[in-house]
UniProtKB/TrEMBL annotation:
UniProt EC number: 1.1.1.31
Alphabetical UniProt keywords: Branched-chain amino acid catabolism, NAD, Oxidoreductase
Family: Belongs to the HIBADH-related family. 3-hydroxyisobutyrate dehydrogenase subfamily.
Keyword presence, Oxidoreductase: yes
Pfam family, one: NAD_binding_11
Gene Ontology molecular function: 3-hydroxyisobutyrate dehydrogenase activity; NAD binding; NADP binding
Active site: K211
Boundaries of every 3-hydroxyisobutyrate dehydrogenase-like NAD-binding domain copy: 207-332
UniProt-listed SUPFAM superfamilies: 6-phosphogluconate dehydrogenase C-terminal domain-like, NAD(P)-binding Rossmann-fold domains
Origin organism lineage: Eukaryota, Fungi, Dikarya, Ascomycota, Pezizomycotina
Record carries keyword Oxidoreductase: yes
InterPro entries per UniProt: 3-OH-isobutyrate_DH-rel_CS, 6-PGluconate_DH-like_C_sf, 6PGD_dom2, 6PGDH_NADP-bd, HIBADH-like_NADP-bd, HIBADH-related, NAD(P)-bd_dom_sf
An individual GO BP term: L-valine catabolic process
Listed name of the protein: 3-hydroxyisobutyrate dehydrogenase
Length: 337
């Protein structure tokens, strides 16, 4: 049998499947990937991953909704639908999870890790790597990481992302990575097949802490932008001229420039299509709550956060606003459309 280069070495010397196949002298076993959670984000991410890995590499997919895995197998192909998350874990060296909330992540990992004996050795004798891209709270994530590490069945990193569904489709996501130093390179090699940037913020949970701090700021900037635009428009200013001015001045932020809440101001922003698509109010509320919860666990009580939570909580149940992009806060406060 041909000698087998340890996958770690193969990963570290390559920039992806194409480069890997270019090593004439390196014999490699096919790699195996597992993907759990093929929703709005997971589906296009898994599709990008499948298109970038070698065609002989294996990919196992699982979702509680069988319709999406069947659709994926039909539309993208070259995957095996696993019957359970345990099945995914047994067959894969690298397992990605893209799940909605902390309890989904906890449940999936409980099922994957039990019983521990048969999972001990990953295919190719390669240490199993679990990459969780879900946005959850750092405490729950640390609990899952601890369960993985203490069971001796692999290593766990948190890699939440930003860029939304558009970035997931285009493969341009930014990942915020929380991982021990020795896992950064291996994890980055996987993530680069689904995104354009991975920022390592520190040890496990650091990616989530960075993500939640960012989304806390986003939640507030979005409300502040809606209020500032509402003021200017009600005072008789032209919204586009006002936004152009803000975007060359100190008030500039992502909601003012890219995702302006006033219809017609930012090209292609959800405001221009009745706030459809984009980043849903529910997800914004979820991330804000996670940030506040994680803050409280560290005795941090941000002054503006609680008020912002009240606003988003009202927006998600308002019939004119619910299930729309979070910039719909502008409509909620009575902005002129
Ligand atoms: P989603 O609800 O569209 O998809 C989640 C998928 O997980 C669904 O297909 C669901 O069936 C599946 N699932 C749930 N429980 C499962 C289980 N036990 N086993 C297997 N599959 C299970 O969510 P999404 O929008 O793809 O978001 C996923 C994560 O990414 C969330 O944590 C979210 O906060 C984060 N995120 C989302 C966006 C966005 O714009 N949608 C952007 C950045 C980060």
């Amino acid at each position: 049998m041909a000698s087998i280069a340890p996958l770690k070495q193969v990963f570290s010397r390559s920039t992806g499947a194409t480069a890997r196949r270019g090593f004439a002298t390196t014999t490699r076993l096919d790699a195996s990937y597992g993907f759990i959670g093929l929703g709005q984000m997971g589906y296009p991410m898994a599709s990008n991953l499948r298109s970038k890995i070698s065609s002989s590499d294996k990919m196992y997919i699982h979702d509680v909704n069988p319709a999406v895995t069947e659709q994926f197998a039909k539309e993208i192909g070259n995957v095996e639908i696993a019957q359970s998350v345990r099945d995914v874990a047994e067959k894969s060296e690298t397992i990605l999870t893209v799940l909605p909330e902390p309890h989904h992540v906890q449940n999936v990992f409980q099922q994957m890790l039990r019983p521990d004996a048969t999972l001990a050795e990953a295919p190719n004798n390669h240490e199993r790597l679990f990459i969780d891209c879900s946005t959850i709270d750092p405490k729950s994530s640390a609990g899952v990481a601890n369960a993985v590490h203490s069971s001796g069945q692999g290593r766990f990193v948190d890699a939440p992302m930003s860029g939304g569904v558009v970035g997931a489709r285009a493969g341009t996501l930014t990942f915020m990575l929380g991982a021990s130093e020795e896992l950064v390179e291996r994890t980055t090699e996987v993530l680069k097949m689904m995104g354009k940037r991975t920022i390592h913020l520190g040890p496990q949970t650091s990616g989530l802490k960075g993500k939640l701090a960012n989304n806390y700021l986003l939640a507030l900037n979005n409300i502040a932008t809606a209020e500032a635009m509402n003021m200017g428009v009600k005072w008789g200013l032209d919204p586009k001229t006002l936004a152009d001015m803000i975007n060359t001045a100190t008030g500039k932020c992502w909601p003012s420039e890219i995702n302006n809440p006033v219809p017609g101001v930012s090209e292609n922003a959800p405001a221009g299509r009745d706030y459809k698509g984009g980043f849903g109010t529910r997800l914004m509320l979820k991330d804000l709550k996670l940030a506040l919860q994680a803050g409280a666990e560290s005795n941090i009580v941000p002054h503006l956060g609680a008020h912002a939570q009240d606003i988003y909580s009202a927006v998600v149940v308002d019939p004119a606003c619910k299930d729309r992009d979070f910039s719909v806060v502008y409509r909620y406060i009575g902005g002129k459309e």
